[in-house]
Specification:
- By secondary structure, the protein is mainly beta.
- It folds into 2 domains: 146 residues, Sandwich (Jelly Rolls); 110 residues, Beta Barrel (Cyclophilin), CATH 2.40.100.
- 8% of the residues lie in helices and 29% in strands.
- The protein is built from 3 helices and 20 strands.
- The strands form 4 sheets. A 7-stranded mixed beta barrel has the order 12-19-16-17-14-13-20. Strands 7-6-9-4-1-11 form a 6-stranded antiparallel β-sheet, with no helix packed on it.
- The longest helix is centred in the N-terminal third of the chain and has 10 residues.
């Protein structure tokens, strides 16, 4: 068992989510930065989709009741085990009774913690992920919570550290025109592809809300709700784009001008308020 001493601003249990249930009104959810969770799991010998913790802006403190191995990836932050500094992107042994503490990351938003064997919280609709919009899965961690551990499924890790590319200070996100690009003026796509947009404090696991030059619509009537995907760049009436993340609704009523390439979604998920992002518009898919 692991005891939660301090949950930080927002810490949730995440795996790779619930794909394939959108027709039932259930979004995928799961880790916002999936490659970071997958790496953390590999570093402790887990399956890539095993459940771990997504820690938003640090502040987490855990007491381990049994000896195990953990790994932390994603947004870099100070890590201490029993008061001793430890590395990210590497297996870290933790003895029974020891306390692990995370500081606030200097860059990025979300740090991922994997524990050998994974977290064995009850699954909901086939996954252990917390969906903060749909309120599926375990609730965000609170002080006093106790997390059960699963049984290791693979060999013990045999690496000491994984090379990881540094987070970009101004991510460039590849996008293709979205299904409602024709609802915008011809200049709107050029504005999207040439202007920096600032990440606002209203961003969360549902979507990253941006502030910058407004994207002008050519059609102003209401759009019936239709399916949306991860990375959809939806534009409300104020013209300020929103990039959908893991807990986005399965349908939306605002037009989608573009869609972010799946490989660039982790960079969106790690962009913090005040940081700027840019869009690189790619040719439409044939």
């Amino acid at each position: 068992m692991i005891e939660v001493l301090r949950p930080g601003p927002l810490t949730t249990v995440q795996d790779l989510g619930r794909p394939g249930l959108a027709h039932l009104g259930v979004g995928r959810s799961g880790a916002a930065d999936r490659p970071s969770l997958e790496l953390a799991n590999r570093l402790v010998g887990n399956r890539e989709g095993d459940a771990g913790l997504e820690v938003t802006l640090g502040g987490l403190a855990l007491r381990f009741e049994c000896a195990t191995t953990v790994a932390l990836t994603g947004a870099p932050c100070r890590v201490r085990v029993a008061g001793r500094a430890r590395d990210l992107d590497a297996p870290v042994p933790v003895a029974a009774g020891q306390v692990l503490e995370l500081g606030m990351p200097g860059e990025g938003v979300r740090t991922y913690l994997a524990v050998r064997g994974g977290l064995a919280v009850p699954a909901v609709l086939g996954a252990r992920a917390t969906d903060v919009l749909a309120h599926l899965g375990p609730p965000p961690l609170r002080a006093g919570d106790r997390l059960p551990l699963g049984h290791p499924s693979g060999a013990a890790p045999c690496v000491d550290v994984a090379p990881v590319r540094a987070l970009s200070s101004e991510p460039v996100l590849r996008v293709v025109p979205g299904p409602r690009a024709d609802w915008f003026t011809p200049a709107a796509m050029e504005v999207l592809g040439t202007s920096p947009y600032e990440v606002t404090a209203a961003s969360d696991r549902v979507g990253v809300r941006l502030a910058g030059p407004a994207l002008e619509r050519a059609r102003v009537e209401e759009l019936p709700s239709e399916g949306v995907v991860d990375g959809a760049v939806q534009v409300p009436p104020d013209g300020q784009p929103v990039v959908f993340l893991a807990d986005h609704p399965v349908t939306g009523g605002y037009p989608v001008i573009a869609v972010v390439h799946p490989d660039d979604l982790p960079a969106v998920a790690q962009a913090r308020p005040g940081q700027h992002v840019r869009f690189a518009v790619q040719p439409a898919l044939g």
